[in-house]
Amino acid sequence: MPREQYSYTNSGYALLTTLVERVSGTSFAEFTRRRIFEPAGMEDTGWRDDFTRLVPGRAQAYAPAEGGWRLAMPFESVVGPGGMLTTVGDWLAWSRALAAGTLGPGVTDSLTRRMRLSGGREIRYGLGLFVGEYRGIPEISHSGSTAGYSTFLVRYPDRGNLTIAVLCNAANAEPGEYARRLADHLVTDFPPPPPLDTVAVDSVTWARYAGVYREERTHAPLRVGADAWNRYRALPGGWLRLGNASLWRFEVPDGGRPTSLTVVRPDGDTVRYAYQGERPWAPAPEQLRAFVGRYYSEDLGVSYEAKLAGDTLTLSARPGIVLRLQPTYPDGFTTRGSAVWFTRDRRGRVSAMHVSESRVWDLVFSRIR
């Protein structure tokens, strides 16, 4: 149902871009130039509305590859949900404009007003920015990435509007981590962390939790390693704490194998995982033959062909692009960060393929052959 869950997506920003153009009667690029960039003093900011255009001073993007690096440029024209070309200096000017209210009354408050779901939980996302805390102080931030570019902009309004802007042109960069390392040095008065009533996790007890779990929402697999016990601290009530981040709780009836795992994330989101087994599923080639066929999505108008290549199941939407599926749990796989699982009809025949990733949950491909 609407407003029950939250997942970041670019689709809303793409729709908003169209709305702005229709209401203003001008292009989004021109609207943002006159109404945002110029008033904020952002002289070197624009949009990638023509990816072939030469932009003076633009850094090329790269990604690590075997034996060195390769270009990883975004060869597409995008305006709105991405595609902003900017500089560190302009991002600092944007932060000053928000703090000073340069863009008009209510703009800053609107951007940082956190949304509330139907169940009452307030999420960290506002109208375009993430609002939370870092080491006990208020933090407002947002990240971004495309192809070989990755970025992070963060400000601390209660610390003199300290703003850190990080722009990277390497696909393996971690701009959020870089920014917070700088914050660790620049902020000298972080409040002391509250003491927690925790004890060390017993490695023997933890070993019972080890195995493969499946998330209920996205069906994504989670591998809990037997050697990860020292990353957690035990709290009263059976809860475990992962560093300063999430809370975990395993359901283990009668001292046997676990049945499920509940994870409470820092923003309050609660995710449940079902226990699948001690180790990843290892199907024989004859078991994989049940998935061979063609699957079609009416939503996308795209079909995938599932084939068996030796002892590996593969997917292909067009010649030359082959995805290898890694088994995880019975009838479940992963490929390139996406969860892929198959469902069966009453006779036990595979009838559909499902795909999920962080921004798409349960995209269905019906079996047509």
Notes on the structure:
The chain is of the alpha+beta class. Helices cover 18% and strands 36% of the residues. The chain contains seven helices and 24 strands. The protein has helices at residues 11-24, 28-40, 88-100, 107-112, 175-186, 203-207, 285-288, and strands spanning 46-47, 62-65, 68-71, 84-85, 130-134, 137-146, 149-156, 162-168, 199-200, 211-215, 221-224, 232-234, 240-242, 247-251, 260-264, 270-277, 293-297, 302-309, 312-318, 321-327, 332-335, 338-344, 350-357, 360-367. It has an eight-stranded antiparallel β-sheet with strand order 9-12-13-14-15-16-10-11, with no helix packed on it. The chain has an eight-stranded antiparallel barrel with strand order 17-18-19-20-21-22-23-24. The chain has a four-stranded antiparallel β-sheet with strand order 5-6-7-8, with helices on both faces. The longest helix is centred in the N-terminal third of the chain and has 14 residues, at 11-24. The model has no long low-confidence stretch (mean pLDDT 93).
